[in-house]
């Protein structure tokens, strides 16, 4: 008996997309989208590359990032009239950074709908912060194209409402780990910081050493009397390296 041939290209894309009922996803977002643009918004480059280099969602992601940024910035500007530009910038970062977007994606159950290549499927790509965040932006780009800016902005303000309301507190308590997240987001660097912690000294007088890794980019260190202090110092060192030319 002949072995069944694996689909590729457009047939593979349509088959993978049609396996799932997308009505719950659109209901969670509170919007309607055509299958054509939703399918594109959900197509990660790993799936596209494995299937004859199909179009992927990166262009929509670029568009959605812009719509998200201006929508949140405008709302923060209006909602917090007495905050400085510096404050608002930090507040915006607390709302739209990769980790915040990934959290939104998980709340909306987005991961299960993303079309991924086999490699990303094997490494749980549907729950990676970077992939989730990028797909949120791609869907926002799709909403903007099909429904216009006002609908896209209303969708953003509804979905991000609690984060915008909490932004002032987060902005006041920004730390170096958050600043690093903002720096990476601003440079569109999709590398997640990882910390390795070691401890030395007696229990009553411990010293913590943190090594922060941005894989393929840089490594920094920090030392403190608590794990938190060590991590923050390592994050501060990483921000300095980036701003001094560690990454342009």
Automatic annotation (TrEMBL):
Mg(2+) binds at residues 61, 134, 137. It comes from Corynebacterium zhongnanshanii. Residues 36-148 form the RNase III domain. Its cofactor is Mg(2+). Coiled coil: none annotated. The gene is rnc. This is Ribonuclease 3. InterPro entries: dsRBD_dom (IPR014720), RNase_III (IPR011907), RNase_III_dom (IPR000999), RNase_III_sf (IPR036389). HAMAP family: RNase_III. Keywords: Cytoplasm, Endonuclease, Hydrolase, Magnesium, Metal-binding, mRNA processing, Nuclease, RNA-binding, rRNA processing, rRNA-binding, tRNA processing. The active site is at residues 65, 137. One of its GO terms (molecular function) is ribonuclease III activity. Its EC number is 3.1.26.3. Digests double-stranded RNA. Involved in the processing of primary rRNA transcript to yield the immediate precursors to the large and small rRNAs (23S and 16S). Processes some mRNAs, and tRNAs when they are encoded in the rRNA operon. Processes pre-crRNA and tracrRNA of type II CRISPR loci if present in the organism. Residues 175-244 form the DRBM domain. It catalyses: Endonucleolytic cleavage to 5'-phosphomonoester.
């Amino acid at each position: 008996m002949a072995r069944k041939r694996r689909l590729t290209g457009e047939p593979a894309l349509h088959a993978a997309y049609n396996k799932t009922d997308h009505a719950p996803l659109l209901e969670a977002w509170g919007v309607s989208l055509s299958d054509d643009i939703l399918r594109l918004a959900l197509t990660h480059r790993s799936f596209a590359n494995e299937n004859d280099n199909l179009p992927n969602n990166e262009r929509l992601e670029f568009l959605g990032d812009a719509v998200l940024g201006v929508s949140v910035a405008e709302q923060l500007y209006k909602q917090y009239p007495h905050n400085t530009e510096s404050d608002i910038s930090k507040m915006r970062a607390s709302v739209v950074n990769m980790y915040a977007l990934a959290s939104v994606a998980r709340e909306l159950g987005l991961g299960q709908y993303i079309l991924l290549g086999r490699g990303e499927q094997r490494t749980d790509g549907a729950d990676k912060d970077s992939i989730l965040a990028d797909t949120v932006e791609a869907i926002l780009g799709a909403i903007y194209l099909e429904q216009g800016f006002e609908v896209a902005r209303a969708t953003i303000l509804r979905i991000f409402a609690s984060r915008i309301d909490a932004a002032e507190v987060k902005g006041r308590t920004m730390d170096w780990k958050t600043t690093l997240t903002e720096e990476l987001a601003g440079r569109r660097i999709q590398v997640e910081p990882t910390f390795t912690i070691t401890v030395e000294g007696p229990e009553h007088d411990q010293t913590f050493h943190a090594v922060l890794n941005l894989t393929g980019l840089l490594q920094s260190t920090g030392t403190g009397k608590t794990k938190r202090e060590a991590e923050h110092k390592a994050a501060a060192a990483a921000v300095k390296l980036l701003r001094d030319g560690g990454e342009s």
